[in-house]
Specification:
mainly beta
Length: 79
């Protein structure tokens, strides 16, 4: 049975999963590249983080994919 989950990506490098049935948050694997304001989307069950800016405000071309079932990130070729 699939459990409903909400994933939250915070500013720069952390992520967490909300578990409604337990009324709790679980810290997940950190994003490999620190950034602010990436575009995000879901394709085939993976959460993609594209672009954004670094702590100095410079635009970034990084692309990474998070697999929530494996709790792992994959670095993709830059945009």
């Amino acid at each position: 049975m699939l459990m409903p989950m909400l994933f939250l990506a915070g500013v720069f490098v952390w992520g967490a999963e909300a578990r409604a049935e337990e009324a709790s948050w679980v810290v997940k694997s950190p994003m490999p590249t620190a950034r602010s304001g990436p575009a995000t989307g879901v394709i085939d069950g993976k959460i993609y983080a594209a672009g954004g800016s670094n702590s100095g405000g410079q635009a970034m071309a990084n692309l990474e994919a998070y697999d929530p079932m494996a709790d792992s990130w994959e670095i993709k070729p830059p945009m």
